[in-house]
Amino acid sequence: MNSNPVNRGYFGIGVEGISKPMNLGAVLRTAHAFHASFCFTIGAGFNVREVLASDTSAAVDNMPVHVYPDLAAFTLPLGCRLVGIEITDDAIDLPSFTHPPACAYVLGAEKDSLSPALQARCDFIVKVPTRFCVNLSVAGAIVMYDRMISLGRFAERPVRVGGPAAPLAAHKRGLPVWKQKQLKKQNNSA
């Protein structure tokens, strides 16, 4: 498996109202492992020392972690789509969802849902199709894994169970698109 997948775009992940430091530490550590560009909390209450005890990868030293006191202060980079992870009747099943190239995923707190105000700010709401709710850090990990296998560059899965994997095709390099257009224009005028 490719240890450094080539994704286009970037993503961040955060939690609204989280209160258990071990869960936040797990989200941060997993986000760091999946090459997240940033993490965030909105209206969270946690002890930083306890978070660092479960974030064994020192994610806070390796990527930006934004702490927003409330939803009014919450901002995202220009062009970044917000994707809520929540079980609602109209949520998109994760296996049927196409991840935006630039987005931030947001989870609700333990024993709670995303607030209606935050859901209203989301461009999309997705759900992990399970029988019942899973731990928020597990749900975040599943979404990040789905993003990686959807947007990453991996060899095709074999058709047979356990069959040999096809080798990863070599990356095709070429001239930048603007240069290709320029050459095409030159060739058409000649």
TrEMBL record:
<feature type="domain" description="tRNA/rRNA methyltransferase SpoU type">
    <location>
        <begin position="14"/>
        <end position="145"/>
    </location>
</feature>
<dbReference type="Pfam" id="PF00588">
    <property type="entry name" value="SpoU_methylase"/>
</dbReference>
<dbReference type="GO" id="GO:0032259">
    <property type="term" value="P:methylation"/>
</dbReference>
<dbReference type="InterPro" id="IPR029028">
    <property type="entry name" value="Alpha/beta_knot_MTases"/>
</dbReference>
<protein>
    <submittedName>
        <fullName>SpoU rRNA methylase family protein</fullName>
    </submittedName>
</protein>
<dbReference type="GO" id="GO:0008173">
    <property type="term" value="F:RNA methyltransferase activity"/>
</dbReference>
<keyword id="KW-0489">Methyltransferase</keyword>
<dbReference type="InterPro" id="IPR029026">
    <property type="entry name" value="tRNA_m1G_MTases_N"/>
</dbReference>
<dbReference type="InterPro" id="IPR001537">
    <property type="entry name" value="SpoU_MeTrfase"/>
</dbReference>
<keyword id="KW-0808">Transferase</keyword>
<dbReference type="InterPro" id="IPR051259">
    <property type="entry name" value="rRNA_Methyltransferase"/>
</dbReference>
<dbReference type="GO" id="GO:0006396">
    <property type="term" value="P:RNA processing"/>
</dbReference>
<dbReference type="GO" id="GO:0003723">
    <property type="term" value="F:RNA binding"/>
</dbReference>
